[in-house]
Amino acid sequence: MERKIPQATAKRLPLYYRFLNNLQHQGKSRVSSKELSLAVKVDSATIRRDFSYFGALGKKGYGYNVEYLLGFFRKTLNQDELTNVAIIGVGNLGTAFLHYNFLKNNNTKIVMAFDADPKKVGQDVEGVPIYPIDNLEEKLKDVRVAILTIPASEAQGVTERLVKAGIEGILNFTPARISVPNYVRVHHIDLAIELQSLVYFMNHYPLPDKEEI
Amino acid sequence: MERKIPQATAKRLPLYYRFLNNLQHQGKSRVSSKELSLAVKVDSATIRRDFSYFGALGKKGYGYNVEYLLGFFRKTLNQDELTNVAIIGVGNLGTAFLHYNFLKNNNTKIVMAFDADPKKVGQDVEGVPIYPIDNLEEKLKDVRVAILTIPASEAQGVTERLVKAGIEGILNFTPARISVPNYVRVHHIDLAIELQSLVYFMNHYPLPDKEEI
DNA sequence: ATCCTTTTGTGAAAAGAATCACGACTTCTA
DNA sequence: TAGAAGTCGTGATTCTTTTCACAAAAGGAT
User: Fold this and answer.
1) Which one, of A76, A64, A8, lies nearest residue A39 by Cα?
2) At which positions is NAD(+) bound (chains A, B) (predicted)?
3) Is residue B168 within 8 angstroms of chain A, CB to CB?
4) B165-201 b/e with 16+ CB inside 10 Å = b?
5) How far apart are the C-alpha atoms of B16 and B98, rounded to whole Å?
6) Is B94 annotated as a binding residue?
7) A59 in the same domain as A30
8) Which of A61, A187, A197, B110 is the most buried (most CB within 10 A)?
9) What's the rounded Cα separation, in Å, for the pair A142 and A111?
């Protein structure tokens, strides 16, 4: 529980982790903050600063040892412990997640899904069982994280049931801003807003004048 | 092109817009920054500051007039002009977007999709035609924005074709960090990273001690 | 009319994040 | 072995964003 890692840094850690994995698969054994910067599109000084919160992980004049860094992040990101995840709502988006292979390079596993539609219940997508949403409380035993892909109108109600069932983290894909007790963490991903905000930036902001093909 | 709206503010605008719409549908004619704060979960001082970049939109002791504010944002967010969008890659995620009704409360419309699979090409999902990906350059005429939902390995190659075809904004759902010329804007949404970072925050950060049911 | 309550808009302060710039150390080359 | 080149780690700086806190204005009540 090392406090003091800035949130901005924490958000970049999984990104670094994935690219280091790529590097290792490519057989590279060392990497500089400059190379990494090119790959992940984050300023090299920022990368060095990010890493430095965890101590001196690199060597001057050499860079970072890929394997060592990877091992370090594996521990830091809890890659050894698997986090079980449930999908709530097997619509188009929910189905997309069921097919998404989170396990690769990741410490999370989708272990069950729920839906209100009796036609979907009982099926099995990619080995993941779909349960009736009425059984939420009963089935959610070893699951701490839920991905919410249901209609916005259901969001708050279902959220309250999730919380009672012991969920501690919610990835909310509905447009609703849900309320939760303070021990539950919610991340919002609002697809319509992302699209709209991209368009706004295109229309109103002179481009930052960086990157090239 | 009013420069000087902070990016953080710009990202919240579509959110405000949507909630104001909700309020209007509920028949409310006035709203205070405090009420709005409760609904969108953004500090009320931040909301007032955000609004203030556009001038004095409210009245002291009263709050904001919903209709007036809405009209103002409609103009600011370009709600009157429709932005055409193309989906690149009709897999599970791409299909989910095709079914997603962006038009409601939104100034964007999905007008076409592309896929490499001959079995998908020629079909029509929710009135949106699916073209072969080879025809990208030919078909993308009045489209400025693309949503990228293809395998990561294809991302950079297809991106370069999109850019040549005149695309100016890309919503990238692949894990690849794509390179583009500086006049093209890219927003990354990396689902695996979002999930991983939620787990990291759950494990490492004492909860911020706010919100309640 | 008067007073009380509500609520904005914004200076000023604080917090958070990115970037600059350079000393120190390492590796590489000859 | 010596000199050149490369790269980290980090103080200091700058930039961005959030939050505090309060004067000024408006509405509402009696």
Assistant:
1) A64
2) 89-94
3) yes
4) bebbbbbbbbbbbbbbeeebbbebbbbbbbbbbbbbb
5) 25
6) yes
7) yes
8) B110
9) 9
d(C-alpha A108, C-alpha A176), whole Å: 25
What is the spatial distance between Cα B27 and Cα B35, in angstroms, rounded to a whole number?
15
**Domain CATH for B130:** 3.40.50.720
**pLDDT band (50, 70, 90) for residue B107:** confident
Q: A21 — contact with chain B (CB < 8 Å)?
A: no
Pseudo-torsion of CA A125, A131, A137, A139, nearest 10°? -60
The residue range of the domain holding B56 is 7-75
Q: How far is the CA of B45 from the C1' of C13 (A)?
A: 14
CA distance A204 to chain B (A): 5
User: Nearest residue of B to residue A196 by CA position?
Assistant: B14
The CA distance from B201 to B207, in Å, is 9
| Secondary structure of residue A93 in the 3-state scheme | helix
Q: Which of A1, A147, A211 is the closest to B179 by Cβ? A: A211
Closest CA to A120 of A112, A110, A130: A130
- Return the H-helix or E-strand segment holding B85: strand B83-88
Q: For B56-81, what is each residue's pLDDT tens digit?
A: 999 999 999 999 999 999 988 877 78
| CA pseudo-torsion sign A188, A193, A194, A198 | negative
Which of the listed residues B45, B75, B105 is the one where a domain comes to its end?
Answer: B75
- By CB atoms closer than 10 A (0-12, 13-18, 19+), residue A110 is buried
Q: What pLDDT digit, counting tens, does each position of A17-51 carry?
A: 999 999 999 999 999 999 999 999 999 999 999 99
Domain end marker among B75, B104, B134: B75
Residues B64 and B88 grouped into a single domain:
no
CA A181 from chain centre, in angstroms, equals: 21
Helix (H) or strand (E) holding A125: strand A124-125
A47 CA, D12 C1': separation in Å?
18
